[in-house]
Write a structure and sequence with these properties.
single chain; about 325 residues; mainly alpha; about 0% strand
Length: about 325
């Protein structure tokens, strides 16, 4: 016996079936979320060197192309020699960037954090005195804030003064650091390999794509991937330049305004500025809380300064740098 279903009925059956599969899959994911996250974390930790290598090579490919096709274009070297020199110069640039980062920024940032931790007790007392001044207006809010500050002080004091906890933390930190360094150096080797043979890998991916999809769809996918890659490069480097432009004036102005921990504040503001829309606010909130505990006048000055800075960035600097990347007029 044959059943002849209307096209509308077939579409409804397919839609309901797909909806049921999605609902069941979502339920299974939610109910096993912890196990799934553990599996993902384990896979990422195993693949960390390869992920480092892919990410770094992806970022360094535009620089390699500029060196090979522009800087070394008129030289008398062979094409293979130009390619190898471009890869070597990219790796030298990467190493110098990391050396500059760890030699210049990290010591100052570490010093700021250590000074903040040493003076944390007095900062919490200042915050409690400030809260006591507004207790008459909102006693419940003051009680909750005082309780949170006390718990925070007790927790930090315990972590910093307990020998067992400190030793355990040091051991875990050293272990993670050693593992991260090993993974990073393996990633550097993978980066060199990918930069040197990127054209061969691209050709293999194209062959695989044409083997899976028809020629017309394969060409469309390649065209779309090229456009997406070009837009990503422009957006990523533009956003990084924008954050650098914001971080440097932030440090200069905070130093001129004699705000404490200018380096730490500038780093937080610059890094969080990479996050679209909410990034500036996410960076300003912890800086404001730190400054409130030290000096509420400096905190208010910081709020005014950061509002002005973000308005300049959002209306002038950001659109000018990122306009070409996202196709918006500058």
């Amino acid at each position: 016996m044959n059943f002849h279903l209307k096209p509308e009925t077939k579409e409804a059956i397919i839609a309901l079936s797909l909806s049921g599969i999605c609902i069941v899959s979502f339920y299974l994911i939610i109910s096993n979320l912890t196990v799934l996250l553990d599996v993902i974390s384990s896979v990422i930790s195993v693949l960390a060197p390869f992920l480092y290598g892919i990410f770094l090579s992806f970022l360094l490919m535009p620089l390699r192309d500029i060196i090979e096709k522009k800087w070394l274009k008129k030289t008398k070297f062979k094409e293979s020699t130009k390619h190898s020199l471009a890869v070597a110069l990219c790796m030298i640039f990467l190493i110098l960037a990391f050396v500059a980062f760890f030699a210049v920024l990290i010591p100052q940032l570490t010093s700021s954090i250590q000074t903040f931790v040493r003076n944390l007790g007095s900062y919490i007392k200042n915050a409690e005195e400030l809260l006591s001044g507004v207790e008459a207006y909102s006693p419940q809010l003051v009680d909750q804030a005082t309780k949170m500050l006390t718990e925070l002080a007790d927790f930090l004091t315990k972590q910093l003064t307990t020998l067992d906890g400190a030793v355990g933390g040091i051991v875990v930190t050293i272990g993670n650091l050693v593992s991260g360094v090993i993974n990073f150096f393996i990633g550097i080797i993978i980066t060199i390999y990918l930069l040197n043979d990127s054209e061969r890998f691209k050709l293999q991916l194209k062959k695989l794509m044409f083997a899976i999809f028809p020629t017309r769809y394969g060409n469309q996918l390649i065209h779309i991937s090229d456009l997406a890659t070009d837009m990503f490069y422009k957006f990523f480097f533009g956003k990084a330049m924008d954050s650098l432009i914001i971080g440097i004036p932030c440090y200069i102005c905070c130093t001129f305004m004699r705000m404490p921990y200018a380096v730490m504040i500038a780093v937080v503001v610059g890094i969080t500025n990479v996050i679209p829309v909410f990034g500036p606010f996410l960076g300003a909130i912890p800086c404001f809380i730190i400054l409130v505990m030290i000096d509420w006048v400096k905190a208010l000055e910081f709020v005014v300064f950061i509002i002005i800075l973000q308005q300049i960035d959002g209306n002038i600097i950001g659109p000018y740098i990122l306009g070409d990347a996202v196709g918006l007029p500058t």
